[in-house]
Automatic annotation (TrEMBL):
Domain annotation Solute-binding protein family 3/N-terminal: ranges: 34-260
Keywords assigned: Signal
Signal peptide: 1-21
Pfam families found in the cross-reference section: SBP_bac_3
Record has Signal as a keyword: yes
Record has Signal as a keyword: yes
Organism (species): Streptococcus infantis ATCC 700779
Gene3D superfamilies to which the protein is assigned, alphabetical: Periplasmic binding protein-like II
Lineage: superkingdom: Bacteria
Name of the protein this chain belongs to: ABC transporter, substrate-binding protein, family 3
Length: 269
């Protein structure tokens, strides 16, 4: 009888300990939430393919964040530029990385990360027909993609200069092809981000005139999240601040962007 009593007294403790261990194990082995990031993968040095793999500054920043967030698993999906935001809207992608700048229209619909790099816009033209400011684009022709912030710069300018607007040809070609066509005289100017333009001109040996656009009041680029990814956006921003402070972001900038192009620290508060 004493042995039976002792067994009955101990057995609830065994059950309790067993339940505690099982609960702990189930929590630690919970599957991470998958975040699919869409990118066109055609804007070096931010997003591009090398040896069949996606890389670039945006991609590598996300990879480092992924290493620090056990509760998430970040995957990349290469798609056409014009399919990125419709895909986010449809829930196929939870985020987008494509050297994305800020626009109010996007901010009304999506969540923006803290800025991950500083990347002002430039005006590019042939040296024999150099343009030196936005005022010079009157009556000239450019090429762009639909829905880009650079096309918006031109359309906004046209609204205030309707007497002699610039013409946008929506070619759908990547920026490297557009810069090559510009060098060949197929159109008059291109507005794009400084870092990508410098990289492509160097890689392709193009002889073009490049002028900073002083009117660009928001020169940063970001990661964009769907509106239902507030928790992931907050976790991303938290890790981004850590990467800024410990020098990782600076290292990635020098490796992929060719210099220190970090946003001002005040913008990471």
């Amino acid at each position: 009888m004493k042995k039976l009593f002792l067994l009955l007294a101990i057995s609830p403790l065994l059950v309790a300990c067993g339940q505690s261990k099982q609960d702990s194990t189930s929590t630690s082995t919970a599957s991470p939430k998958t975040i699919v990031v869409a990118t066109a993968g055609d804007i070096p040095p931010f997003d591009f393919e090398k040896d069949g793999n996606l890389t670039g500054y945006d991609v590598e920043v996300l990879k480092v964040v992924d290493e620090k967030l056990d509760q998430y698993k970040i995957e990349f999906q290469k798609t056409a530029w014009e399919s990125i935001f419709p895909g986010v809207d449809a829930g196929r992608y939870q985020a987008a990385a494509n050297n994305l700048s800020y626009t109010k229209e996007r901010a009304d619909k999506y969540l923006y990360s803290l800025p991950i790099a500083k990347n002002p816009l430039v005006l590019v033209s042939r040296k024999d027909k150099a343009l030196t400011s936005l005022q010079d684009i009157a009556g000239k022709t450019t090429r762009d993609d639909t829905g880009t912030s650079t096309a918006k710069v031109v359309t906004d300018w046209n609204q205030n200069h309707s007497d002699n607007p610039a013409t946008i040809q929506y070619s759908g070609e990547d920026v490297a092809k557009r810069l090559t066509d510009l060098a060949n005289g197929e159109f008059d100017f291109l507005i794009f981000d400084k870092i990508s333009v410098q990289k492509i001109i160097q890689d392709r040996g193009l002889d073009l005139n490049v002028v900073d656009l002083e009117s660009n009041d928001n020169p940063n680029n970001y990661i964009i999240f769907s509106s239902d990814q507030k928790e992931f956006k907050e976790q991303f921003d938290k890790v981004l601040k850590e990467l800024y402070q410990d020098g990782t972001l600076e290292k990635l900038s020098k490796t992929y962007l060719g210099g220190s192009y970090l946003p001002d620290q005040s913008q990471l508060q």
